[in-house]
Fold this protein.
Amino acid sequence: MADYDRAVTGADAVAAARRALGPDAAERLALRVAPGAALAGTEDLEALAPPRSLGVGRGAWLAAFTPLFGEFE
């Protein structure tokens, strides 16, 4: 988990998806991840919602979510 004041939640991930990937991907993510789910990193998120499940490629998925967790590739 990144060194923030709180864990990243499903709601945070949905908001990031809406900004970076658009409303369709955000809706797909919201169906897979509970708003209050605590996510420790991209591995947790990818286990619940891999790129294909959101209709995006791996590069777009990483660009949308790695900054959320303080991870950069």
